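WARN retry 2 of 3 for item q-0093 after timeout on previous attempt; input resubmitted unchanged.
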Amino acid sequence: MDAFQPTYGAGVEIDPTVGHESARAMRMQSWRALPAGKTWAASRLYRKLTLKPHTAYQISFWLKPGAMTKPEKLQFFIQTADGRPDAPLYRHASQGLGWGSTPDGNWNAEGNTTKFVAQAKAAAAGNPTWQQYNVQFNSGNFTEAHAYFGMYNVIEGANTVWIDDIKLEEIGITHPVERGQGDYVVTRTSDGKVLTSTDYTVNGATLTIHNKDMANADLKVAWRQSPSRMFKGVAAVACDGGDFYRVQENYYANAIAPLFNNQIPKVVTGSPKKYFMYYDEIPVLNWEQNDARCSRRSAGDYLGHMVRGVQNPLENAGVETLTWNDMFDPNMNAIARYYQVNGSLLKTGATTSFKSGNADIDLHPDTVIVNWTGGEELTEAAQTKRRESLLYFREYPQVIALYYEKKDTTTAWLNALTAAYEKEKTLGTPTSLKIDGIMYTTWFNNYGDLAAVAEQIRKSPYAKYWPKAQQ
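OK item q-0093 returned
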């Protein structure tokens, strides 16, 4: 436990009076005010992890809350050694403490943050206890990473938690992705002999050996580990036989399956028929180069091949497709390293626009790009990205997705659109920026500001991109 060290002096120290099994534990307290001259504050613990590549691990730890006004703000995450915020090794989007697993390899019914909030409420009611938590992750290509516990910019009220008995261990089969063929490869390490499927059975996290000659042998087991509940959004995309990309099945199976029989599915609506594809913030893809049917030149090529596999039957059925911009946009997630995408998502040769690049990441020319660059951010950097993103997709129809619980994003996007039109005049090409409309977009089904946003757009030079007011 002492190998975890505080990275900031205030708020983190060893408490010799409280411990889980021993007499001491690490105590973390939030800041009560911002340090002089600082715009943010953090209390956190850090440890460098030495890992084996492509290996499943579990980190377990015990927590005991004291007085806490913001228990939901306690976080645990793992960064790659270079510390890039856009490439974590483990970071759950909505459960700051991650999501744990049961001993038999199933997901817990609730996330760690939900569990800890309940634990903190019980402590406030006079029942403080120690409880154990865990997270499981895969090291991917990395041999070194940095693990953090922390409270970030929590400066309101008192928040105290004790952390003890932190344990990192390599684990066996957990959350396997099974397809009925090649799910497990079991090898005897002494001579590389591969066991046949009749030599063993897999039941949850347990591998049972039936071959007596292998019963006491040192075995290596390879399997596909699901990244579900490790990151955010769509957990991953995966190739199943080279044609249909199974991870999208939960979103698409009922919707597009009829198209393979030349039937329009009921969920595809509108006139003309439209379908909004769900390719957005995908943190894991392109890990199947060992399957020749799935191996592509790059992560971007893999993504493009997958999307076109969905678009082709839709196009043949006369359905217009829409997609979020972020996975194809170098101003957002189409970068050299994004989360645990294996390889670069950058479109090669796309120096001036998406269409100018090579065909490794291809979209149908009539694909509608739903552009949400910057989200709720209002910084100058976000504005620059909005302008550049609009220009990057200028040959495609675009819908601007604004609001995200901040009315000022309306002004930000209208200004970015003006800036994009002005810059386009300097590019030496005919004006081609195509805006199909503006969409009110909310994280939390908050439509209380819709009227104000609508009024501002209707009074702007871009009122034509918003529905007219009903009389």
